[in-house]
Specification:
Length: 751
């Protein structure tokens, strides 16, 4: 695609790129006589040569010398070059001589050209200059779990996430802590894109390397109640914490099975005082721990909320003598593996044989020689005893020795005790540790043996449960929270009707956010409302974070946000409140406040740290479907605010809700024509009855609608007329879904 140009010296030979001169060439070529010869791509051709000349592609021409655009597989249409009107042409149509077109290919196809971005084709008196337009099959993107790819085409790196051209070479390898299982016939770590859009090699499956003991310098300090472990030595051990009296307290151990599943004992999940199962939001798990204390931060420690507790349906604790004492916890976080956070192996197919008197490793923070829970993780190696022999040996404990158990014999005063429940017993096979049991129960007045849940009986239940995890997306948004206690309504101010001006029980709407600003004297004043839509992002009105005196954003350091708030006052501490600084304020570039009549009145606040999600702090949903679900005319949505007044005109200091009726922007413009300049196309209106609606200080609050058992945010309180209290204007969130998604993605990637 080049012509040798002027040779100034012998060091290099410049060439002219013909593709950059197609327009001139197309105008010129038709004026040459039929015998004029043109050098192109190192080959000579002449119009009028015999049919064996392959450099000029002849097609059926009409009497005017036009070229018919081919209709072949992969071609969708063509686009005329140097065109301003009606530029797209369908396959099968004709173009005039000297016209240039670019080819448009269907997904999975690309132009038959070395440079797909300069794939131009010239019609020359009924023939195609160089080659006939054609789309060729591309190779599909390379994606496989736990495989990493590097792709090269023409010596240059290309993205492996898009369709690739013939000749692209891809190198692949498994992520760290995974290994490839290859076809035994051939081994390769590269694959090439071949003609026809197929890859030359099958991709391997990457399997997790589980049960690896971290090879650290072991401390050989033999203790009466087990050996002290070195930090990170057993990277699958998990600490489980319960929120008690405003603190997370250690209750049980567990074992990491995958990126987001922890295995533990079922009895750890129940309150021993009333045998009610704990709620997910009461629990936390931590991996990468060496110290028992939740608040002792360690280098590789990762904490996670619990998304779902799974316990066998027939488990009833003491009622069936602790049979089926096994549980799975699905974590909110997806744990990223490293040398200090790795899962234990699970013998899915019973390939490992466990024999009498085999010694396994038990780790935990259970009782030490002083009778208190150990601050540091300890280990002990003890022998196992099959359940049949255990029943014969310990007849006084027979009723608790159910068929899904085996026994572990304590030695030299070392064994399991309170605080060790839920931890795993592992056995090393070929350098990897396999979990065989879970610490379950023991006789309270004896330190001779313990009963363990035999995991081999439950492998099917474990795998079936892990195969159907709870969707994080369905759990994380639009769920009305479980309230800690229904707050009593003020009798003189609140009606029984739930549709207007209702006191909100604490935690009912866990997505509502209070936005505070530091004032001149350093005091914090709540200036607006907001809505949590992501663990690190809050949606509010742009004018809430806008300095109207100089038309710029306020500084991030001036803003604080609070979730889990019930009262208006920042200084009134509440059980589940979480306070965060604002790391970044994001507003649309087009927002200029009053200058453009509050068009684009929407903002995102990125917090410095993510909120810890629980039943009192959860995001609202955003409808990302195209088109969004329909809100019927005059449909009622739920609005929350602190500045709504009660019937007697008294300002409210605690959160209230009311139902507001929507009004389309078209109807709103007709009804309130005097306010029309503020009724931009990104807005809608709501009717307000009895002054139960947004007031100053509640801007940025959300209007949500229930849909399929979840609450979706569709509006942000924006502006209202000072002269009329019967309507208010909201920013239509549906208009900004793409902007919201893009800004969150950019912020998370680059910040």
């Amino acid at each position: 695609m080049a012509i040798l140009s002027a040779n100034i010296n012998n060091d290099f030979s410049p060439s002219t790129n013909i593709t950059r001169h197609f327009d001139w060439l197309s105008r010129t070529v038709s004026t040459f006589n039929s015998q004029m010869r043109i050098k192109y791509k190192g080959a000579e051709f002449a119009e009028g040569q015999n049919n064996n000349d392959s450099s000029l592609i002849r097609i059926t021409r009409d009497t005017r010398g036009n070229c018919r655009l081919p209709a072949k597989a992969g071609i969708t249409s063509f686009t005329k070059a140097n065109c301003e009107i009606s530029c797209e042409v369908d396959a099968g149509m004709s173009i005039e001589s000297n016209e240039i077109v670019r080819i448009n290919c269907a997904q999975g196809y690309g132009p038959d050209s070395n440079n797909q971005y300069e794939a131009k084709y010239i019609c020359n008196q009924g023939s195609w200059f160089d080659k006939e337009p054609k789309c060729v099959k591309l190779c599909p993107p390379l994606k496989k779990e736990h495989l990493k790819f590097e792709c090269i085409h023409g010596g240059e790196p290309v993205s492996c996430d898009t369709y690739m051209r013939q000749g692209t070479l891809a190198k692949f390898r498994c992520e760290e802590f995974y290994r490839a299982s290859y076809d035994p016939i051939s081994y390769s770590d590269t694959t090439r894109c071949l003609v026809g859009g197929v890859w030359s090699e099958r991709l391997p499956t990457c399997s997790l390397i589980c049960g690896l003991v971290n090879q650290v310098n072991k401390v050989e300090a033999t203790l009466m109640y087990g050996n002290k472990t070195t930090y990170g030595e057993y990277p699958w051990h998990v600490a489980i914490y319960l929120y008690v009296a405003k603190r997370y307290e250690y209750i049980c151990g567990g074992s990491l099975l995958s990126e987001h599943f922890v295995l533990t004992a079922a009895h750890c999940m129940f309150d021993p005082s009333n045998y009610v199962k704990f709620r997910e939001d009461q629990l936390k798990v931590a991996v990468g721990k060496g110290k028992r204390d939740y608040y002792f931060k360690e280098r590789y420690q990762i904490n996670s909320a619990v998304l779902k507790i799974f316990v066998p349906e027939t488990y009833v604790g003491d009622g069936t003598r602790y049979a089926e004492d096994i549980a799975l916890l699905q974590t909110y976080e997806i744990f990223k593996f490293n040398h200090f956070v790795l899962p234990v192996c699970l013998d899915r197919y019973g390939s490992v044989t466990f024999r009498k008197n085999m010694k396994g490793t038990i780790i935990g923070w259970g009782l030490n020689e002083e009778g208190t829970l150990s601050d540091e993780l300890r280990e002990v190696r003890l022998p196992i005893m099959p359940i049949v022999e255990c029943r014969r040996e310990f007849k006084d404990f027979l009723q608790f020795l159910t068929s899904d158990k085996y026994c572990v014999i304590h030695q030299n005063g070392s064994g399991t005790g309170r605080g060790d429940s839920g931890g795993g017993m592992t056995f090393e096979v070929a350098g990897q540790h396999y979990i065989h049991g879970i610490v379950s129960i023991k006789k309270t007045d004896s330190n001779i043996f313990s009963a363990f849940t035999n995991i081999s009986i439950y492998t099917s239940w474990i795998y079936n449960t892990m195969r159907k995890p709870v969707s994080k997306n369905t759990k994380e948004c639009g769920i009305i929270g479980r309230t800690s206690h229904p707050l009593r309504k003020r009798e003189s101010n609140v009606t029984e009707a739930a549709s207007n001006n209702e006191v909100v029980p604490y935690g009912k709407y866990p997505w509502h956010v209070a936005v505070f600003k530091y004032m001149e004297k350093g005091e914090l004043l709540r200036i607006c409302g907001g809505t949590l839509i992501h663990e690190q992002f809050i949606l509010t009105a742009a004018h809430c974070v806008w300095n109207h005196s100089n038309d710029t954003k306020v500084a991030e350091k001036e803003i604080l946000v609070a979730c889990g708030k019930y009262h208006n006052d920042y200084h009134m501490s509440e059980t589940h409140q979480q306070i965060r600084n604002v790391k970044k304020i994001i507003v649309p570039e087009a927002f200029t406040g009053r200058i453009t009549n509050y068009d684009n009145d929407i903002a995102l606040l990125q917090t410095d740290e993510p909120f810890e999600l629980n039943n009192f702090v959860l995001p609202a949903c955003i409808d990302r479907t195209k088109p969004p679900f329909t809100i019927k005319p005059e449909e009622k949505g739920t609005y929350l605010g602190w500045r709504m007044t009660d019937k007697e005109g008294e300002k409210i200091t605690y959160l209230k809700e009311t139902q507001l009726t929507t009004l389309s922007i078209i109807k709103c413009r007709k009804k309130y024509s005097h306010f029309i300049k503020y009724l931009t196309m990104d807005k809608f209106c709501v009717n307000i009855e009895n002054d139960f609606g947004p007031q100053r200080g509640d801007s940025g609050g959300s209007l949500t609608f229930p849909y399929k058992d979840r609450y979706y945010i569709r509006g942000l309180s924006s502006i209202k007329s000072r002269d009329e209290a019967e309507f208010s204007v909201f920013t239509n969130v549906s208009t900004y879904v793409d902007w919201i998604n893009a800004e969150i993605e950019i912020a998370l990637v680059f910040n």
